[in-house]
Automatic annotation (TrEMBL):
Xref: Gene3D superfamilies: Tetratricopeptide repeat domain (1.25.40.10), Zinc/RING finger domain, C3HC4 (zinc finger) (3.30.40.10)
PROSITE patterns, per database record: ZF_RING_CH
Pfam families per the UniProt record, alphabetical: RINGv, TPR_10
Top-rank taxon: Eukaryota
KW NAD (keyword) present: no
Keywords: Metal-binding, Zinc, Zinc-finger
Keyword Cell wall biogenesis/degradation in annotation: no
Domain RING-CH-type: 77-156
Organism: Pelagomonas calceolata
Protein name: RING-CH-type domain-containing protein
GO function terms (MF aspect): zinc ion binding
């Protein structure tokens, strides 16, 4: 997570809390905590290292990046043994290799640091050339998406890239667009690796920042609220999550229309919230409204469309009042989705594995009715 608490007592502090170490900018909730940490809490032993590392925020980001890369390399070690980074072409560098996208075979093996440098260079060139929004965003997405298979990174690799992005831009002014977007990238990385409590800290700080800066683009607010809602759900706050998801979906419909990808993402999240609370009829009604739009607008192998259809199948087979036709439709849909996910994303992608698990659950529900 980012630094939002007092370094001495861990109390939450405002972004502009005045108490801080003048040397390394470590922040405190009060002058009393600053004095205590300096005299008796051990801060004096690490102050110099923090200051030389760019200050408290930068030093913390660097540490979290190093930890995340080490975790990613360790988890990917078996799959990457004997492979070569597709960017620097070095397989013997001190930093280990990772792969966390949809590449297969000998493709996609890479150093996290190489991915970070590549994304940083692309974004810097876009800034220098003052590219339009579409070209700019395409380059920025390299912080989250593989340049070979064009699929988003997942798991530990996405988390490590999130910290790489944050440590790259954290030193910029708070109102700088790249720093603001980097906060979203690191929050998403934490979320997708299952660090929900840490993701919540980042997302709440991001929302507070946007409101503090009086961001006039309400779409930015909706995007952060959409992420927050997902985190609330995984932290067990399902009712609060559903209310926020409903508001976000409604907001996107008004601002962007039903065919916007942002709107469809929000609708998908709203449907998932209804599913979690077992409000099946409402979920069916929503999905039957948005699925025709998704079929018209999205490609057959688009991951959003795959996930949306998966949720619809889940709504069908998890309902205690499901008919045999509902169960058969759920199984047939999930069989098709599992094949598509395997073809597009590979066998070990989380979406593919999720399809396999859900297909097994749907088949079990059908077999429980005595059907072969």
């Amino acid at each position: 997570m980012i630094l939002t608490t007092c370094a001495a007592c861990a109390k939450s502090i405002d972004h502009d809390a005045p108490a801080h170490c003048v040397n390394c900018q470590t922040r405190y909730c009060s002058d009393r905590c600053e004095r205590y940490d300096r005299r008796r809490g051990g801060h004096g032993k690490i102050c110099g290292a923090i200051a030389s590392g760019g200050g408290a925020e930068q030093h913390h980001a660097n540490q979290k990046y190093d930890e995340a890369v080490a975790d990613a390399v360790e988890i990917c070690a078996y799959d990457t043994e004997g492979q070569t980074c597709f960017i620097c072409m070095d397989g013997d560098a001190e930093e280990g290799l990772v792969r966390g996208c949809a590449c297969r075979g000998a493709a996609g093996f890479v150093h996290v640091s190489c991915l970070a440098r590549q994304a940083q260079v692309l974004v810097a060139e876009a800034e220098e050339r003052d590219l339009d929004d579409d070209a700019f965003n395409a380059r920025w997405r390299r912080w989250e998406k593989c340049g070979l298979c064009e699929q988003k990174y997942h798991g530990v690799v996405r988390c490590a890239l999130g910290w790489a992005c944050w440590k790259t831009y954290v030193g910029r002014p708070e109102e700088d667009w790249a720093r603001r977007m980097a906060m979203s990238v690191v929050g998403n990385g934490l979320y997708h690796e299952g660090h929900y409590a840490d993701a919540l800290v980042v997302q709440e700080a991001e929302l507070s920042m946007l409101r503090r800066l009086d961001d006039t683009d309400f779409v930015n607010i909706l995007a952060v609220q959409n992420n927050l809602a997902g985190t609330y759900q995984y932290l067990g706050q399902s009712e609060q999550a559903l209310q926020l998801k409903r508001d976000v979906y409604s907001g996107y419909v008004k601002l962007k229309g039903e065919e916007s990808r942002n709107t469809m993402v929000a609708a998908n999240n709203y449907a998932n919230g209804l599913l979690v609370l077992r409000r099946f009829e409402e979920a069916k009604a929503l999905l039957r409204k948005i699925l025709p739009v998704a079929r018209r607008v999205l490609g057959e192998s688009d991951t959003l469309k795959l996930t949306m259809r998966k949720i619809y199948a889940m709504v069908l087979h998890k309902d205690d009042d499901a008919t045999l036709d509902d169960l058969r439709e759920a199984v047939n849909t999930l069989e098709e989705l599992e094949r598509t996910a395997r073809r597009v994303l590979g066998d070990v992608h989380p979406i593919t594995e999720g399809m396999e698990d859900e297909l097994q659950d749907a088949q079990d529900a059908l077999y429980a009715r005595g059907l072969p």
